[in-house]
Amino acid sequence: MRSVVEDKTTAARIRDAAIARFPIDGINGTTLRAVAADAGVSPGLVIHHFGSKEGLHRACDDHVVRAMTQMKRESLGEGAYRRAASIAAMYQMALPLVRYIAWTVGTGGETAARIFDELVDEAVELFAEGRDSGTIGEVYGDPRKQAAVLVAMQFSALVFHEHLTRVFGIDMLTAEGLAASAPYTLQILSGDLFDRQVMEETKKALQELERSQEGTR
Amino acid sequence: MRSVVEDKTTAARIRDAAIARFPIDGINGTTLRAVAADAGVSPGLVIHHFGSKEGLHRACDDHVVRAMTQMKRESLGEGAYRRAASIAAMYQMALPLVRYIAWTVGTGGETAARIFDELVDEAVELFAEGRDSGTIGEVYGDPRKQAAVLVAMQFSALVFHEHLTRVFGIDMLTAEGLAASAPYTLQILSGDLFDRQVMEETKKALQELERSQEGTR
DNA sequence: CCGCTTACTAAACAATTGTTTAGTATCCTA
DNA sequence: TAGGATACTAAACAATTGTTTAGTAAGCGG
């Protein structure tokens, strides 16, 4: 008979302990002994269930991706809700999972690519829908590139949560944090912050910067 | 007598080897033996010069921050150039240093905070200048929070360089990569991508999302 | 030339690591 | 209820880790 708090299989408890530790100590900094201790089991049992440390890592990746996909599917709504959902849905997940995703995507690797590309695909779809319904203007150049830049921008709040939390004074991995920063994000995205002409100048300056750099690498 | 390629002190060579390795293998995954081998010295010498592995890490942080500050100071221009410089200046640094910064800021920690806050301070200054000269509109709420969100957004290109490189087909840590992505970034920042009304709806949706989340954490 | 510091290596040390082994308890099924 | 699989532990193993030690070579001021 298990208590209410520990209403999980032992394997799940080990996996969740790893999900909590990997983002903090890194993949190499996390020892199987620490994970085992957190889960209240012996180190050998971790191997017994997951085969190896790498197997444990894979299991964590799989679980997090599955949880994210499921969460997004559940929170799929219409119109503005749908548009807000793509990233925001993650904030409805349990905090350790959000932390794990932020860490994974920032770290790189195959799972990171999987998550990123999934979000890019979704954004491209939203572009197509938005253009048909007139809520999104003509996309410059390649929609996929435009989507990638947008996803990276949106994700930044997740990756830099530590720093934004410091500035905002609210935990940025919570829905409250998202709500606190959203107005500032929208201020930027609405084009109200920068003057249009300034933007053109900046564009030219960047191009010139590139030209001046040519051949120096 | 040293060759042209290795025109550095031994300590500098060790430090640069570490700067190249830390972002790839992580702080715990990087062994002193690997760094020593890359620099062509014995493991003991690393300790002799830097005291400990932690000392080596600190030396790398210091060097990178110093290089970044110096680079920014040198590339400080006027008007549009100055505005473009804050992040773009990093792209003029040597690739390993850029990689190290991207890794550090994404990883978190004290140095990450130092770099991030420095860029935020700079952005706040630019806001003040821009408001006086009319190139920047009224900043919503707290300028520092606005700056933090902006810096995080700009930095995303650096942290997600791996994924953006995949989508764009150009190395995003080079000036060419920056130039390729800049039009897409500006498209978003100019407010041309999203309809203003859609943005208002999204804002409301996010607020509602927050309300529906209240008390569930 | 002496003596001292600095730059450096080779080898060994102690701790920690992921993993294996051997064994016990518990459960399920036939 | 017999028996084989499963869940689990304690202890040991082999490899790797950061670090120390002892020692050599080279520069340098006096």
Annotate the secondary structure layout.
Two copies of one chain form a homodimer.
Chain A: H1 10-29, H2 32-39, H3 43-50, H4 53-74, H5 79-88, H6 95-107, H7 110-133, H8 143-159, H9 161-168, H10 175-189, H11 196-213
Chain A binds a DNA duplex (30 and 30 nucleotides) through α3.
In a nutshell, what does this entry contain?
The structure is a homodimer of 217-residue chains. With 217 residues, chain A is mainly α.
Please characterize this protein's 3D structure.
The structure is a homodimer of 217-residue chains. Chain A has 217 residues and is mainly α. Helices cover 75% and strands 0% of the residues of chain A. Chain A has helices at 10-29, 32-39, 43-50, 53-74, 79-88, 95-107, 110-133, 143-159, 161-168, 175-189, 196-213. The longest helix of chain A has 24 residues, at 110-133. Chain A is elongated and about 65 Å long. The termini of chain A are far apart. The relative contact order of chain A is 0.07. Mean pLDDT of chain A is 83; it is low at 1-5. At the A-B interface, helix 1, helix 5, helix 6, helix 7 and helix 8 of A face helix 1, helix 5, helix 6, helix 7 and helix 8 of B. Chain A binds a DNA duplex (30 and 30 nucleotides) through residues 10, 31-33, 41-49, 52-53.
